[in-house]
Amino acid sequence: QIEEWKKLKEVPTQSKDGVHVELGANIGTPNDVTGVLENGGEAVGLYRTEFLYMGRSELPSEDVQFNAYKTVLERMEGKPVVVRTLDIGGDKELPYLDLPKEMNPFLGFRAVRLCLERQDIFRTQLRALLRASVYGNLRIMFPMIATLDEFRQAKALLLDEKQKLTSEGVQVSDSIQLGIMVEIPSTAVLADQFAKEVDFFSIGTNDLIQYTMAADRMNERVSYLYQPYNPAILRLVKMVIDAAHQEGRWVGMCGEMAGDATAIPLLLGLGLDEFSMSATSILPARSQISRLSKAEMEQLAAKAMGMQTAQQVVELVRSIDE
Ligand code: PEP
Ligand code: MG
C-alpha cells in the first residue's frame, strides 16, 4: 500500500472513469507546505491565517503577513493557494483584541463580521495578500459569509486596497480568484445568487453541520447530532455544487468531511471539484478515488439523498465494493 501511494504522489487525481478532481491540503503555517509537497498535494485548499494572529501579544504587521503569504505561494510553485482571511472568534480568541465575552460565541462577532467592523485589521491583511499575489497562484476567500451584502462589502474593501496599491506603483496580480466559504445555511440556500458574484465556493462542513443541525461542534453531549452523512447535509452540499456549476464556478470542500473515506464516494458523486484535507490524507484519498467510478457514485449519491437517516447512508456507502 505504501508503495502504491508513492507512485500516486506525482500523478493527478483521477476517478476510475477518468474524471479529474483536485486534492489539496489544509495548512496553518508556511512550514506546513513541506507536508503538502511530500504528500503530493495539488493545491493548498485552505490556509487558515488565524495562527499568524495567535500566540503573540499584538496584531501581526503587514510585512510579517506579506512574508508568510509570499513564502507559501513561492513554495507551491504556481499551484493554487486558497488563503482564508481572518476567522477569529468562536472557539479562537485573541486576548489583545479585548473583545467582550458573548453568550454564544459561535453565533457571535467572529470572522468576516469582525473584519467588516475592524477595517484596520482587515485592510492590513488584504494589502499583505495583494502584495504577495505576484509570487504565485493566489485565491482569496472570506469565511462565515451569511449574506450577499457582507460579501459585497468585503470585496469592495479588497478592490479599494488593490486600487490604492496600484496607484502607489505596487505590482498586484490580475488573476486572483475571489471566493467564499459556504458554512452558514443561509448562504447554501442562496448559493445560486452567490454563484453569480464569486469565482468559487469552498464548503466548510465543520461549521455548516453545526449550524444546520444546531449542535455545537465542541459539545460532546450533542455530538450525536453532528452528522456529516445526514441526508439534509448531503442535499445542502448538492444544492451548492449544482448552483455553482450552473454559473461555471468550481466548488471545493475544506471541512473534515472532505478527507473522510466514507464521505469521499458521496462527494465525488455529488460533483465536488476540489477536496482539501490534512496532508496525510491526500494519498489514501487519491488511491480511493482511482478505484471509484464517478458515474456510479452519482447513482450512489442520488440514493443517499433519498434516505432518512445518516446511519442508512453509512450502510449504503459500506455496501459498495471498491
Ligand atoms: C469549516 O468550518 O469547515 C472550516 C474548514 O473552518 P474551521 O474549521 O476553521 O472553522
Ligand atoms: Mg469554519
UniProtKB/TrEMBL annotation:
Mg(2+) binds at E183, D207. Its main location: cytoplasm. Transmembrane segments: none annotated. GO terms for biological process: phosphoenolpyruvate-dependent sugar phosphotransferase system. The active site is at C254. Its EC number is 2.7.3.9. GO terms for cellular component: cytoplasm. It comes from the Bacteria. It is found in: Cytoplasm. Phosphoenolpyruvate binds at R48, R84, N206, D207, R217. Keywords: Coiled coil, Cytoplasm, Kinase, Magnesium, Metal-binding, Phosphotransferase system, Pyruvate, Sugar transport, Transferase, Transport. The keyword Magnesium applies. Its cofactor is Mg(2+). It catalyses: L-histidyl-[protein] + phosphoenolpyruvate = N(pros)-phospho-L-histidyl-[protein] + pyruvate. General (non sugar-specific) component of the phosphoenolpyruvate-dependent sugar phosphotransferase system (sugar PTS). This major carbohydrate active-transport system catalyzes the phosphorylation of incoming sugar substrates concomitantly with their translocation across the cell membrane. Enzyme I transfers the phosphoryl group from phosphoenolpyruvate (PEP) to the phosphoryl carrier protein (HPr). Belongs to the PEP-utilizing enzyme family. This is Phosphoenolpyruvate-protein phosphotransferase. It comes from Paenibacillus lutimineralis. The gene is ptsP. The chain holds residues 249 to 570 of 570 of the full protein.
